[in-house]
What does this fold into?
Amino acid sequence: MVSWASGIAAGLFATLFPSDCRLCGAPLINISRLPVCEDCLGAMRPITGGLCSVCGERLVSPFAFSAGPYSAEACSTEARSTESGEARCGLCRRLAPPYVKASAYGSYESGLRELIHLLKYNQVRPAASVLGRMLAEAIEDLQPLFARSEVLVVPVPLHSRKMRQRGFNQSELIARAALKLKFAAVRFQLSAGLLERRRETKSQIGLSRHQRRENIRGAFVAAKPHEMAGREILLVDDVFTTGTTVSECARILRRAGASKVYVATVARTLKAEAQHAMRESETETRLTMAAAG
Ligand SMILES: [Zn+2]
Ligand SMILES: [Zn+2]
It folds into this structure.
């Protein structure tokens, strides 16, 4: 990982003197504040295909969308929910998450993953506006579900020490960029102070689902419960990996009085992609599967 000072220097240099694309190395033709070429940006496509209607995980079963009479038996972990007619993954069927729905723009891999890293670890702030446009698409996907015309937007907070180190909360920057765009039916109000991160947490990599929950328990607190009583909240983060963080945040917000919580992220770890990584390296696999949880 690049140090704080050199990260800023590198980001500043690339902004002032664009030379090569920071992702593929191709020379940049247009002068842009973001040192990433059009080809790399164009390759960051939205997620397509069968997804869990609650958490957005990839449904791997070919029977997940089948309406046939034997579809439920054909796959023990995935099936259509009979009331809504929408597919849910095994985890969401066993235990409904504390949020209504999590929507992500793209898969957390290749270029999109690198672009998020440019923002987070190399302080290339102009990346936030591109990521914000992607987040806006994830928000668009949730819009029909909002019951009210006013929704509070809460970025997942950083611990104060990490905030000082990085100089910004990437989730808040991305949320701000997204909210600059026009939304037809809903008025969003950015409310960054409603949630606080009191405790720093260890990396979730390699932990079991139970260990991850234990690791994150007590890390977040609701700061102003009176402001969220009865309100709908859109929780925003850069990446949805295991869902442990957003689930814990949603649980805290609900307990503080929020009527409903929705989740929008720029990217999401997907099962199929995690399985692809498995073939490449066995050690990495265990970590990726744990992260994809
Ligand atoms: Zn490129
Ligand atoms: Zn699910």
In short: The pocket of zinc ion (ligand 1) is lined by residues 21, 23-24, 26, 36-37, 39-40 (CB under 6 Å).
